[in-house]
Amino acid sequence: MAGYLKLVCASFQRQGFHTVGSHCKNRTDCGAAPGAWSQVAVQKVNAAGTDPSSPVGFVLGVDLLHIFPLEGATFLCPADVTDPRTSQRILEVLPGGRADVILSDMAPNATGFRDLDHDRLISLCLTLLSVTPDILQPGGTFLCKTWAGSQSRRLQRRLTEEFQNVRIIKPEASRKESSEVYFLATQYHGRKGAVKQ
Q: Is the Cα dihedral 154, 184, 110, 35 positive or negative?
């Protein structure tokens, strides 16, 4: 497992996922199992406190599946990020109640029907985006995996409404024939005209 995590982590670091900034203190990793993104995040924010010259950050991983313990990370599992009770638990656990970065590697169980699987993944991303006002700091970053398809533009439009910059990333580690891509949205400002509750 550790070798697999290191391979995935190295791939993410090479791909410019460093743009989610080591200056960020609190990160939430949704769809965290098996823990590769959390492992990178722990290193980036010094969540394990291994660098005494850097401030110590906080990493929270959330997943329906069990995640093996990782020094420097806190995990909520099993937990469903689409459940409002999970959002409340996230707020209670995050220092200051807010994250600087939300990472999402969530994916529905594949049915084998490409369009259906795509629609279900976009729905997961949009659901997570709907709780962003409660969890993400202004100026924060949102990174989510999706599969390219007919609903991708819908997700991209929503991200563009809430973030200053939105771009698509395809990691080198992703197979060439794979439709897997990531949306990287930075400088969160919320939706114009949205009413705060």
A: negative
- The Cα–Cα gap between 91 and 26 comes to 12
d(CA 163, CA 186): 6
In sign, the C-alpha dihedral spanning 174, 38, 60, 190 is: negative
Burial of 96 (0-12, 13-18, 19+ CB in 10 A): exposed
Query: What pLDDT, in 10s, does the model give residues 47-81?
Result: 899 999 988 888 888 888 888 999 999 998 988 88
Catalytic residue among 6, 25, 44, 145: 145
Has residue 20 got a pLDDT over 90?
no
Choices 3.40.50.150, 3.20.20.70, 1.10.150.670, 3.40.1400.10: CATH for 1-6+24-39+55-70+80-188: 3.40.50.150
Active site residue 192: no
Asked if pLDDT for residue 154 goes beyond 90, the answer is: yes
